[in-house]
Amino acid sequence: MNMLKKTVPVLGAALLATMLGASASRADGEKVAVDLTTLTSPFWTSYNKYIVEEAKKQGVDLLEPFNSEFDTAKQITGVQNALSLGAKGIIFSPFESAAAGSVLKAAEKAGAKVVAVDVAPDAGPVAIVVRANNLAYGEKACKFIGDNVKEGPVVQIMGDQASINGRDRGNGFRECITKNYPNLKLLEIPTKAWSGEDAAAGLDALLNAQPDLKAIYMHAGGVFLAPTLQTLKRKNLLKPAGEAGHIVIVSNDGIPQEFDAIRKGEIDATVSQPADLYAKYGIQYLKEAINGTTFKPGPTDHDSNIVEVRPGVLEDQLAAPLVTKENVDDKAFWGNQL
Question: Which of 192 and 20 is assigned the larger pLDDT?
Fold first, then answer.
């Protein structure tokens, strides 16, 4: 990492290489654990695949990843079990950002380093967060819808507001619509624990009262795509793009199922959050943290920036491009590589 090199600028190349080699070998001998938020979402099953591959590629002794199933108690128990098995590093996704403190304190007490992936905790201690800018997710969805819908009601199907991801995506979309598109009427469907059942029930009720809906923004295609399309189809409102009555739909994840829906004209776009890079840099940062590296704000060597999002919480904000019918077949997207 370039951040490591900045801390030792006077060392010669040979000596630096020797130190890095020794440091890597120390990390290779340490056990690390990975928490999975859920395995019912194609996004998280893809992330699980990538995390196992990256652990092997980067020489990490990975314990069996554990699935919290959106349950804070299970997440805490999983981390405690990993620590009891000797894990010196933890990668986790704090779906209840405020409750992450219990995990972080337990890891700190055991002398283990923690990297948060996809979701940032409300406070430290955490070595770094690997995440894309979720406010920008909502803004990108807003701008696409605003460019394609002139007036009328639009709705965002929201992720759990106990998660900073749900709050950021919601705030980014809401503020952009309110500021830039006064002719759009914003509606919102809340969900608990990113529930597809909540999404379907909320959309069904909304369409009964608002049958002239013009657009939908789904905070997470992995859990909301299927129930949303099924609800629209059941109400005979799933019209392909370009046909009269088509409801503009923007999703968020970048899974293959969303790409197929774009190709079919069922949805119009999705924001591709980088499951592959979450795994790659989650493992890489954890190795470096175990070896004693501390991180600082600034540009990285992989076209992103580390920023301080809250006092003591640094975040590597990875790129998350918008995928539409124009670029959906681009092989660079991880959703086209599975």
Answer: 192
Q: Put residue 316 in one of left, alpha, beta given phi > 0 → left and psi -120 to 50 → alpha.
A: beta
Domains of the chain: 2-126+274-318 (3.40.50.2300), 134-272 (3.40.50.2300)
Q: What is the mean pLDDT of the chain?
A: 90
| 288: pLDDT strictly greater than 50 | yes
Q: Which two tokens stand for residue 25?
A: 């070998």
What mean pLDDT do residues 5-9 have?
35
* Beta-sheet strand order (sheet of 215-218): 184-189, 152-157, 215-218, 248-253, 269-272, 322-324
Asked if 306 and 314 count as a contact pair (C-beta separation under 8 A), the reply is yes
CA–CA gap between residue 48 and residue 39 (Å, rounded): 8
Task: Give yes or no for residue 162 having a pLDDT over 90.
Answer: no
Q: Provide the pairing of β-strand 248-253 with 215-218.
A: parallel
How far is CA 132 from each of CA 35, 174, 225, 305, rounded to the nearest angstrom?
18, 18, 21, 10
Structural contact between residues 304 and 128, judged by C-beta atoms closer than 8 angstroms: no
The C-alpha atoms of residue 270 and residue 250 are separated, in whole angstroms, by 5
For residue 175, the surrounding DSSP H or E stretch is helix 164-180
Question: For the chain, how many residues are written?
Answer: 338
Q: Which residue has the tokens 């002139």?
A: 150
* Backbone phi, psi, residue 315, to 5°: -135, 125
Tokens found for residue 54: 């990256």
Torsion of CA 285, 64, 84, 314, to 10 degrees: 20
